[in-house]
TrEMBL record:
One of its GO terms (biological process) is DNA damage response. Residues 1-25 are annotated as: Disordered. This is Protein-glutamate O-methyltransferase family protein. Residues 40-377 form the Damage-control phosphatase ARMT1-like metal-binding domain. It comes from Glycomyces terrestris.
Amino acid sequence: MRSWRRPARENGGAEVPDPQLPPPIGIDRPGSFSRSVFHERHPVLVANLLADFPYPPHVAEALEALLAESLAGDVPARTPGGPEIHTWHLEVEAHAGRPWESLPFLWAESYFYRRLLRAVEYHHYDSPWCGVDPFAPQKHAQLDGPELRADLDAYAALRGAGAADRRRALLLAALWGNQADLGFRTNNPGADTSAGDVLVDDSEALWELAEAPGDAPVIVVADNAGREITADLALVDHLLETAAGPVELHLKPHPYFVSDATGQDVVATLAALDRDPHQEVRDLARRLRDAVRMGWLRLRTHGAYVHPTDYRTLPADLAAEFAAAKLVILKGDLNYRRLVGDLQWDPATPFAEAAGHFPGPVAALRTAKSDLAVGIDPARLAKLDAEAPDWRLTGTRAVIQVHA
């Protein structure tokens, strides 16, 4: 197994670059997408939080101070509070004193959101803001929005579709549902959300693995709440019908990036489906609840899903779960970055080379919303770069990639 760095527990938290792998994507290059996340997206994000909640002055000041530090400061030595504190202590110890702009993009973005939760006192048990999801208003707005209404109308219309057409529609809905990422839309509210080009389509390999005989689980690692988790739940419902074993839906243990899905978001989504005028949609919610009660659908989480590291440093227990699964389906851009490593890959690098470290069969459903890309046919890549140089960032290209 190749790794960009050894696990922190083995080296006291210090990064050890692997010379076999490309360097990490950073946030220091002017004009880069990663830099724009900090200089364009995060200021809008903080302004939205201050508009959505009547935070007291000290919370507002903490948010503004975090924003200023992330744009022109250094990483302080203190460890942010909350769960997984030992991991965060080692990670911060390894980066303390470094200018933010010198940090790897994935690490810096994860650290920013961890510090944001501290600023809004999400983990402060003696604060009235403890447990208040700072992104809940944006998530709930999407559950009540016209785009989800159209999605559910389309789902209800599938009742007369043939089995193959229905299966294809559910998979594509889960794939393109990742366009609803609220972080992506924070400073890009007019983003195109129509289905675009699927650059790599390993869907038949995905179904062959997911529907193979045996009682090992299929694991779906969720990404975002709102429209995306709704589409994911419809796909999970289909897998419960066609896969021989149970299905696990893995969620974040607490809010992470703007719209990352938690258990609370699943509950809110099922409640929204219960209110839908279509009987088919209400039946979907009922079947999912019954599946949870019977143990066929297992809702799971793990602290590793909110670590600032990629999947090359998986904790042993989660790695063992992945290895025992029939298939792990990773949803979205963030899970993709963590799977292949948020590195400066040549986009023509085979997916198997970048994802070969994963402990079991894995499928990635990802719409492209960052500079990272792997597994793209060189001829297709040349055409994309010539005709749409920003194709990696717009959310209108997607991949279904499988490595077994």
